């Protein structure tokens, strides 16, 4: 595999990570996961603006050349270096504060690293088997602005994912300190109840997901009444459908939460709308 470090293509065996790397030592970094298909980066503009907003929130210095055109050029260069320009791929753009200092950094300048790997599907494909989930209650995610960004400080997600594996679950749902459902380990959550499509507000501490944004915009096309509301785990028992959304899969449907089972009819309809939206953006 070839990597892109600060605009330079580097072979795997030549990539050296400094021991004082702030992402490694302090989780002082942010990232974007993008889907590349049909020679296009899906919803790239939204990813770019979220990245810029996240860098401002964590007080990283944004380089003058960090334009949408520059970053897209660097991603495409990385895809080409890995012979993936004509395939679907997962792209990860990592931004970390430059090495130096302890908790207090010596500089707010940044390094960036782009990695790519093949992805199976061009379009978003609905999972044939519904997911089984449960709650993760060992630790809570704090509500607030920092919860909205994709940070390399992801220990809660890692611990929760281990818990899911230990209990033969496909994923687990995270709670904030108010014991409200906010997301899963790698996705935003939507709960369908009749004609109401409910998702936690950003103030809950959930990730400001790009696919969350797309689904919210498309909800009226399915005659759904979108609501950003906090909800407790008990509300899941009364839902008709539960969806998990992220940039790579689009959305996946949940079949089972404890003894409750869900349908997937509207999830399939929404996924079709998402694929149409991507296709129209290619024209």
TrEMBL record:
One family name in Pfam for this protein: Aminotran_4
Keywords: Aminotransferase, Pyridoxal phosphate, Transferase
InterPro entries: Aminotrans_IV, Aminotrans_IV_CS, Aminotransferase-like, BCAT-like_C, BCAT-like_N, Class-IV_PLP-Dep_Aminotrnsfr
Reaction(s) catalysed by this chain's protein: L-leucine + 2-oxoglutarate = 4-methyl-2-oxopentanoate + L-glutamate; L-isoleucine + 2-oxoglutarate = (S)-3-methyl-2-oxopentanoate + L-glutamate; L-valine + 2-oxoglutarate = 3-methyl-2-oxobutanoate + L-glutamate
Gene3D superfamilies membership: 3.30.470.10, D-amino Acid Aminotransferase, subunit A, domain 2
Signal peptide: none
Cofactors (names): pyridoxal 5'-phosphate
Pathway listed: Amino-acid biosynthesis; L-isoleucine biosynthesis; L-isoleucine from 2-oxobutanoate: step 4/4; Amino-acid biosynthesis; L-valine biosynthesis; L-valine from pyruvate: step 4/4; Amino-acid biosynthesis; L-leucine biosynthesis; L-leucine from 3-methyl-2-oxobutanoate: step 4/4
EC assignment: 2.6.1.42
GO molecular function, one term: branched-chain-amino-acid transaminase activity
Gene Ontology BP term (one): carboxylic acid biosynthetic process
PANTHER family recorded: AMINO-ACID AMINOTRANSFERASE, AMINODEOXYCHORISMATE LYASE
Family, similarity comment: Belongs to the class-IV pyridoxal-phosphate-dependent aminotransferase family.
Name of the protein: branched-chain-amino-acid transaminase
